[in-house]
Amino acid sequence: MLAKFYRLSRDITKVKMSGIHELPEFEWEEIRKHNNKSSLWIVIHDCVYDVTSFQEEHPGGEEVLLEQGGQDASASFEDIGHSPEARALTDQYRIGTVAGGNPKLPKDIAVGTPPESTTSTPKSKTPKIVVASVTIGIIIIGAFVAYRYYTRR
């Protein structure tokens, strides 16, 4: 355990001196383990942040961070509309990226921009439903008109 902590702290030191793409990558399995007051990580736009030491300083309270611990907090982070200063503050807590993710720094994303999902989500089915409903309606009306036409003779 001590060796793991030493490696992580050494990596964090390197991170502060390197770019976003040189950060260590973490699997979700590892990230999910850090979801309590003594070790609290969150993910924002595929960047991993260790916010353990920030809990008491967080203006929204430590409960807000604990609720998001070990999870993707991108949507919550954007919904609140954090200031540019708050976005810049995230730099000091960044320890890595999500393995296979597409990391973006919060300070580089416009306030209120919805997060991009790391998993593919289906597009809205509303247009398909409308087209199907209209098509079925036309078929039913056509069948009714044909029935009335052929039964009047």
Topology:
Elements: H1 2-17, E1 25-26, H2 28-32, E2 35-36, E3 39-44, E4 47-50, H3 62-68, H4 74-80, H5 84-89, E5 94-98, H6 126-151
Written account of the structure:
The chain is elongated. The longest helix has 26 residues, at 126-151. It has helices at 2-17, 28-32, 62-68, 74-80, 84-89, 126-151; strands at 25-26, 35-36, 39-44, 47-50, 94-98. The chain is α+β, with helices and mostly antiparallel strands and 153 residues long. It is 44% helix and 12% strand. Mean pLDDT is 78; it is low at 1-7, 9-18 and 117-123. Strands 1-5-4-3-2 form a 5-stranded mixed beta sheet.
What structural keywords apply?
5 strands; alpha+beta; elongated; 153 residues
- Contiguous low-pLDDT stretches (5 residues minimum) are 1-7, 9-18, 117-123
Number of helices: 6
**Mean model confidence by pLDDT:** 78
Proportion in β-strands: 5-15%
Query: In total, how many beta strands?
Result: 5
Distance between the termini: 90 Å
Rg result? 25 Å
> Class by helix and strand content?
alpha+beta
Q: What share of the residues lie within helices?
A: 40-55%
Biggest sheet: strand arrangement = 1-5-4-3-2
Largest sheet: 5 strands, mixed
N to C succession of SSEs:
HEHEEEHHHEH
| Global morphology | elongated
